[in-house]
Each structure stands twice: as structure tokens, then as C-alpha cells.
Amino acid sequence: MLIRRATAHDAAGMAAVLNAVIALGGTTAHEVPKTETQVRKDYVNGPDVLSSVLTEDTGRIIGWQSVGWWQGEAHIGTFVQPGLQANGAGRQMFSLTCEILRAKNVVEIMAAIRADNVPGLAYYARIGFVDFAHDPDFALSDGRKVGRVHRRFIV
Asked: Among 54, 69, 90, 113, which is most exposed with the fewest C-beta within 10 angstroms?
């Protein structure tokens, strides 16, 4: 398994991972698949992107993590191919993410996690994020309330 910085050329593989997570449902607030162009701009090299890293195995992207400015704060998103979670890739990606953010003098990262996303909540807790707010009324586009937990990590 290789952990490295993402490049614009990785956007198609990153979109494939994200869209597989969206299609599965239950672990992301994203509900509509993203195009390669959207992923490139929003998560790889757009003006608000602070860090973008990925993990690959035999040349195939199996997960990625991006931090970008959102509503004036550095927010993180982590996506791993369904069925391949909990293999240590997230922790390794986060190590590189923190290294990149420290070099940019970013001191705090926010995570907004669906309250029903048990694996995501466990992951962010394992790597040191702590709760600072809850939004029990957060709802998906179909009106279904899933809640949201807001966590913070001091870089």
C-alpha cells in the first residue's frame, strides 16, 4: 500500500471511490455522484484545497483524504473503497495530511460526520478528533433526519 499526495491525474480514480461510497449510502452526506472535474476542483487542486492525499494498491486508488476551506474553516473528508475500510490506510493518510497542514500553518481541522455513520465516527475518534457540537436535525435531501456530529482536531 502506497500513501502519497494526490495529483490532478488521480481525479478519475478518486471520483470512482467517492461515487462507490455515495452509491452504497449511509456514510456520507454526499447524495449525488461527482464527476472527475468536480473531484479535481473540490478535492485535489482547486483554490480551497489545502491537502489531498491518497492510498493506492498495485496502481489502484483505494482511498483518499482531502482538507479544504469550507465556511472559513479547514474541513476534512475521507473516503475508502467499500469493503476495504479498517486496513490502516486512513491512519496513514492522516499522518501525511497532518504533515502537509503543519507546513501550511493550519492549526485546526474540522470534521462534520453523519450521526448514523458509525464507521466514520469510530475512525475520526481513533485518530484524535473530539466532539464540539451536534446537529440532531441535519437531514438528507429526502427529508430523512440523520443528524450530524461536529469534531475538531488540533494539528
From this structure: 69
